[in-house]
Amino acid sequence: MFDLIQPWLGALGIGLTILMFLYCVILHFKVSSLTKKYKFFMDGEDGTSLERKLSVEVKEIRDAAANLEALFNEQQTIRTVQNNTIQKIGFVKYNAFENIGNDLSFALTLLDGNNNGVCISSIYGRSESRIFSKPIVRGKSVASLSQEELESLNEALGDKTNEEALVSASVVK
Prior knowledge:
Elements: H1 2-43, H2 50-82, E1 88-94, E2 105-111, E3 117-124, E4 129-137, E5 140-141, H3 147-157, H4 162-172
Antiparallel strand pairs: 1-2, 2-3, 3-4, 4-5
């Protein structure tokens, strides 16, 4: 009975030895590849270690994050200042009196980002001209407005109707 098993054991042993040899060759190539990668990271071009390279990169990332935070703070400051500057303008020219031509009277509205500002109107007459100013708070006038001043305020607020937009576009062209 052992005579039948012995040839199989020899062949099995040889097969296992060949498999182990092939496995060792594959492992040798993998270890060699890992060794090359390890040497690349640890030795680098100028001989610095991976730890030094990583510490430099981390420092650069922290500096970039600090610069980004400073940039956001500066942007917030700019937005705060910008809300208090003139951003919206409405302008309407008109003829205050029928016997005077050329639309020499006007209403000018200047508003900041919070819709606060002033409406300045000038009424031109043959013998005299008058200039008025009326405060605007949150898009509303404290004093009563004339029709032209109201149009100027609406233009500054961006509340033009389609007809007014068409008239404005045809005048500009």
